[in-house]
């Protein structure tokens, strides 16, 4: 099969069918209104992604409580958001009813921004801190996730990504670092309790076999005691627990997993591979292959960090440029059983129409992400986020942000 046929071939997730192998990653853009509902600008962004024809689109991280936001203008999913979210999904799906839509449910935990949220922690990390959570408070957080899943379902979403990655609450509780002696810490049985019970409760509450449930998971957070390490103070990669997590969630009905790595407030270049270390992307393929190898063939694995491959001009050495492009290498990863779908994050800002252009034979018109990471700078500065290279609106926002707040030196920009 040629790369185009591979990438445009449909795939089943649970009982649903995705028209192609492109997945739009959750990408926070901080442009929602003050009540956490999608603004006109949010809606237009997603309409555009749907018109671009990716098989599966993820909504950016949507917070299950107001006090667990990491972004000032972040989406929220509580009872008052039900109706606005329903209207939002209707509008977005009207742009293209074939693409599937999942919501990424999150609680920021120790990454909740103290300027407008309550920073809480399962065990304080040096330099982060936060109020120590009680068992009762964790039970309440779980209630918030269950309600959020029901609202997502009622609003017309096709499924949810129960976020267990990038250092947010869902991954904080899983870490070996969480060795506190409590119901949710210490042994693997205790640390996995939150994720496992939550899946069981969500499946029961939603009670719809057509509704997709899965998680984005950081296979290795990249710091001592992070998820995917060998122990509370070890940075050494050990996938025993990530694999146990995948299999435990699969048993409880998960139909897909989005592979990721890192905890961006600590290990930013691991989560968003940058142009100075493009070969870190190969680590992601190593992790997604490990996911595939331990899951049932019908459980869909979505790989991440394909933006950095670009049109082959990517700084990767000892490879043929054309075969190393996002399209060629992405298709090869699918054909080689490394992944089932290709996640597009920063690339989806650069060109939301990539899948459609590929289908229409307009590959030459695809705009490739330059991996400048100015979008990341906007996110960290709490500005509205988009592509500063190809969309003048965001170039102007970047200029204004730097004028008001100074230029930020993101680790790798
Ligand atoms: C501006 C920005 C916002 C992001 N927001 C989210 C998010 O809401 N949820 C999430 O899981 N990852 C988020 N990420 C990470 C991406 O989804 C993705 O995992 C990462 O960028 C690597 O993919 P890429 O190389 O295709 O960009 C964000 C990244 C950026 C740059």
From TrEMBL:
Keywords: Flavoprotein, Oxidoreductase. Residues 7-224 form the NADH:flavin oxidoreductase/NADH oxidase N-terminal domain. One of its GO terms (molecular function) is FMN binding. The keyword Flavoprotein applies. Coiled coil: none annotated. This is 2,4-dienoyl-CoA reductase-like NADH-dependent reductase (Old Yellow Enzyme family). The lineage of its organism: Bacteria, Bacillati, Bacillota, Hydrogenispora.
């Amino acid at each position: 099969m040629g790369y185009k046929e591979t990438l445009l071939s449909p795939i089943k997730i649970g009982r649903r069918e995705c028209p192609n192998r492109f997945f739009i990653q959750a990408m926070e853009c901080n442009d929602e209104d003050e009540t956490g509902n999608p603004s006109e600008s949010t809606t237009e962004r997603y309409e555009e992604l749907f018109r671009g024809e990716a098989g599966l689109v993820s909504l950016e991280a949507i917070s299950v409580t107001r006090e667990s936001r990491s972004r000032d203008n972040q989406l929220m999913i509580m009872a008052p958001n039900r109706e606005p979210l329903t209207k939002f999904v209707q509008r977005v799906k009207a742009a293209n009813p074939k693409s599937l839509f999942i919501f990424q449910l999150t609680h920021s935990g120790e990454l909740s921004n103290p300027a407008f949220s309550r920073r809480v922690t399962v065990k304080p990390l040096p330099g982060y801190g936060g109020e120590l959570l009680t068992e009762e408070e964790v039970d309440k957080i779980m209630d918030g996730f269950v309600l959020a899943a029901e609202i997502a379902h009622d609003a017309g979403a096709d499924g949810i990504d129960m976020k267990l990655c990038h250092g947010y609450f869902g991954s904080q509780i899983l870490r070996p670092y969480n060795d506190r002696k409590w119901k949710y810490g210490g042994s693997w049985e205790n640390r996995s309790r939150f994720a496992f019970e939550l899946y069981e409760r969500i499946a029961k509450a939603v009670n719809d076999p057509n509704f997709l449930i899965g998680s984005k998971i950081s296979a290795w957070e990249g710091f001592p005691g992070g998820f995917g390490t060998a122990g509370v103070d070890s940075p050494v990669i050990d996938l025993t627990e990530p694999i146990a997590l995948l299999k435990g969630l699969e048993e409880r009905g998960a139909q897909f997993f989005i592979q990721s790595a890192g905890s961006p407030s600590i290990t930013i270049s691991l989560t968003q591979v940058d142009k100075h270390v493009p070969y870190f992307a190969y680590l992601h393929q190593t992790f997604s292959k490990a996911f595939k190898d331990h899951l049932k063939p019908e459980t869909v694995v979505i790989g991440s960090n394909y933006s950095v491959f670009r049109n082959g001009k990517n700084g990767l050495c000892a490879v043929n440029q054309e075969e190393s492009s996002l399209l060629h290498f992405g298709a090869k990863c699918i054909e080689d059983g490394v992944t089932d779908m290709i996640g597009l994050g920063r690339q989806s800002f650069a060109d939301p129409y990539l899948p459609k252009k590929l289908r229409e034979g307009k590959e030459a018109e695809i705009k490739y992400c330059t991996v400048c990471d100015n979008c990341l700078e906007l996110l960290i500065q709490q500005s509205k986020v988009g592509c500063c290279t190809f969309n003048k609106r965001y170039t102007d926002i970047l200029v204004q942000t730097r004028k008001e707040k100074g230029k930020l030196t993101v680790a790798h920009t």
